[in-house]
C-alpha cells in the first residue's frame, strides 16, 4: 500500500474495548459458540505460517504511518515555534514602541507647559504695555 504524507492516524474512531462492558449474559451466549475441543483442522496450514508475515507487514505499515505522522507533527511544531518567536519579537517591538510613545508624551507635556508659560508671560507683557501707555499718558498730561 502507498503511504502518503497526509496519512495521520485518526484516533477519534477508536472505541474502548467493548468486552469491558459485556454482561454475564453476553459472555454466557458467547461460550455456546466457542469450540475448545482442540480440533483445528478447519484452518489451512499456509494461513498459520502467513500470519506472522502479515502481522509484520501490518506493524511496518503502522510504523511508516507513525513516522509520517511524527514528521507532520514536527513540521507543525516548527511552524508554531516560528509563530511564537515572531509574536515575541512583535511584543518586544511593541514594548519599545510604547517606551517611545511615553517619551514623546513627556516631550508633548513639556511643550504644553512651555506654551502655557508663554501665554501667561504674553498676558503679563500686555498688561505692562498697558501700564506703560497709561503712565506715558499721565506724564504727558502732567507736562
From TrEMBL:
Ranges annotated as biased composition (Acidic residues): 32-45
Superkingdom of source: Eukaryota
Compositionally biased intervals (Basic and acidic residues): 46-60
Annotated stretches, region: Disordered: 30-60
Protein's name in the database: 8133_t:CDS:1
